[in-house]
Amino acid sequence: MYDNVRFLEIMEQIFESMAVVVVTDTDGRIVYVNRSYSEILEVAPDEAVGKPVAEIIPRTRMNIVARTGQEEIGSPFVMKNGDTIIVNRHPIRKDGQVIGAVAFSVMSKRNEVNTLSTLEQINRLTFEISQYKQELGRLRGAKYSLDQIIGETPGMQRLREMIRKVAQSKSSVLITGETGTGKELIAHAIHQESPRKHNPFVKLNCAALPSELIESELFGYEEGAFTGAKKGGKPGKFELAHAGSLLLDEIDQLPLYLQSKLLRAIQEKEIERVGGTKPIDVDF
Is the model's pTM score more than 0.90? Predict the structure, then answer.
């Protein structure tokens, strides 16, 4: 008996240390409300117990959680005094059956209840992150998007639909066509439509580099790999495109000796720098 009493005392102290705690049964009637929240509600805890939660707490969703059994995490809620808090609502289950619901604030102190400024900061930071992502995409990402592919013929509509579909795949894509038909434009559009659009879009014209430099440009090199190698080495295009997209333009112009190394990079997502001994995982 002592253990049960002690346990209940500890639980009550935990609940009372929080800003907001309220428990209801499946009928939506209050079973428990802590003193801190009862002061905000302007009702004594004993008076609140047994009453419909909607009568004591306007706009509450406790009865919905108890009825549906679906938890609600991190929900903003405007209290009776006008303060906005962030609450979690959970169904209470016993033997697999919902027997009630509990809601509590993520704040732990009474003077932290008013979190309107916190919500404003979250909204501001979310906006700033969005702006930074857009700027980063402009600096490091693709220049063109699906909007630059103009035309309403059935063929162009099929092309745009194929781009949207391919962009959601993790597979490598081979784009073929005559010179000037817009292969690079399509590559940019695929990147912009993919989940990788905020990550780097790196391109390399394989026909524009001397054969002796193409390997170090693609795979990078370690310090001392050859005469003139930079101190500390240099990452290649595969590493620079990590978590983003890599466009290898004129890939058919690659030297034959690089094809096996390129195949391993594409299939295994693993490369090895020139002069290196350790494999490097890449995601492009």
Answer: no
